[in-house]
Write a structure and sequence with these properties.
176 residues; alpha+beta; 31% strand; disordered N terminus; signal; DUF4252 domain-containing protein; DUF4252
């Protein structure tokens, strides 16, 4: 009986931890949604499906059709950015709000007063979220790309699209 109770508590605890992580990122975005110093962008899954479908259906080349299918896998993009804040303070605040054991670091660039990190959250061997946190003297950017991707597909998104933040991802060593 004690074993069943213990297993139940562990199961529900893992669910709550997962929900708390999603809430932590959402809370970070929410904290600054009404702050006029920040630009906020949200691209819905429906918009990504429409864009991918348009590209896929109007493409004559196989590569364009593949890219259209890949874009349809994006389940949302959220971007929060500002050039009117202490970027390094915001960078530290955003990074500290993450549950570190849920994310794996892909790239970390520290250079004379600027920091850039790319992190991924994986489930079942697939990337569910690509997170970019960037801060410098008076600039801050947080980008969250949700979906279900292989690393090869992320590389293709970086190389073939203009999705914000993916240009920085494309500059790093992102092979997995």
């Amino acid at each position: 009986m004690n074993r069943i109770i213990l297993l139940s508590l562990l199961f529900f605890g893992s669910i709550l931890t997962s929900l708390a992580q999603d809430d932590a990122i959402q809370r970070f975005f929410s904290n600054y949604m009404e702050d006029d110093r920040f630009s906020r962008v949200y691209i819905s899954p429906k918009m990504m499906q429409m864009a991918g479908g348009f590209l896929k259906n109007n493409a004559e080349e196989a590569e364009s059709k593949d890219l259209g299918e890949l874009i349809q896998k994006v389940r949302g993009i959220r971007i929060l950015s500002s050039d009117e804040v202490d970027g390094m303070t915001m960078y530290k605040e955003a990074y500290s709000s993450l549950t570190k054991n849920k994310y794996e670091e892909l790239m970390d660039v520290q250079d004379k007063g600027s920091s850039l990190k790319f992190l991924v959250r994986e489930e079942g061997g697939l990337v569910r979220e690509l997170l970019m946190i960037s801060g410098e003297k008076s600039e801050f950017t947080l980008m969250s790309l949700l979906g279900t991707f292989t690393y090869e597909e992320l590389n293709m998104l970086a190389d073939k699209t203009n999705i914000p933040g993916m240009d920085q991802y494309g500059k790093g060593n992102k092979q997995k």
